[in-house]
């Protein structure tokens, strides 16, 4: 069985939903994972924000605007009277719930419940649409099987057990439809797998049912060799191995949620990235097979803070790094990059929540300098550290100031830290130096 995930754009218009229908309607048994319609999760978060700020009128206005958008889509999507009415009744119940929430005390739990409605609505609507088109499908409520544990990781044992149980209730089904992104936490409250989490839902399900393949259908022809939002002349990459895909996703390639490949890597379940608007295109295939050597792709992750830790007295004394790492461990903050010199250590973090406490603890034995608004530019490819063409990346040194370089941590990754205001220039120039010159 395959698992096919369709993202926000793929279910974001009636035309695209028709594409999805054509892609999935081939008679084979499959699980379909859907995101919320594009724009919905942002709109729901913004409603939650108004409620948090106790701005009931603003929240109500936003709820009404979103409600109208949904009713317009339903009228276009569902021409069958009964299905149109039934779906509007369901969607109205969702918006009534949101309206009730505007009068409740703000809380993180309430926000999670609000933001979960996007996937609940898109799956309901798409299921009704398939019925209208004469295609049999079965809704599997994600909240009946998708669980995360205390440390917010998927609870694979309980997911496997629960998913089997809900699928076994309708063994004859060909198309199972479920919500991406949403889950229950260890206390049974509604939670989610973070932004872009539907990709992760798909591979978690893929691992749980030992799928033959997981397909991530989106709005672009696979993983490109640089960020197409900022860089001209990027190209899709046909094959990646799990490690390469994991590095790119973790370091900012938005096409994949950072954790996407982790659940399926061990079982060697292939992941295909495909374009809903151009299904014939090969896209990208992610497997455990070794791929060509050399720099394959570049990605960038924003919102990075660099911390320079300088100590005269304890310098290079054994135990110095241990002391530093213990502080980051105490404040549950992971370090992405690290470089050392004779007089200082620089590390980067992407979570500033405990920055003040971390600085205070470090200042007990070191002098600290902090640079905010940094971006990690990550170059990924098999054995790039020793590759003949890799020197080309260092031409970038003549164009922008590099705050840190991490080379040799693994053979497959080289990371540069730059000020975020130089990110786009760095990405474009690296693209020109590495890919365009390489292909001349
Ligand atoms: P979906 O809603 O289908 O999950 P996303 O917006 O999450 O889609 O991901 C697809 C988008 O990721 C693309 O439209 C593209 O702008 C962006 N993107 C960023 N980096 C890359 C990359 N390296 N390759 C392809 N797309 C990328
Ligand atoms: N709807 C969620 C988001 O916008 C999850 C997803 O699209 O994957 O982040
Ligand atoms: Mg996404």
TrEMBL record:
Residue ranges constituting the Aspartate/glutamate/uridylate kinase domain according to the UniProt record: 2-275
Catalytic activity of the protein: L-aspartate + ATP = 4-phospho-L-aspartate + ADP
The organism of origin for this protein: Mariniflexile ostreae
Protein name: Aspartokinase
Chain ranges passing through the membrane: none
EC number of this enzyme: 2.7.2.4
Gene Ontology MF: a single term: aspartate kinase activity
Keyword entries, A-Z: Amino-acid biosynthesis, ATP-binding, Kinase, Nucleotide-binding, Transferase
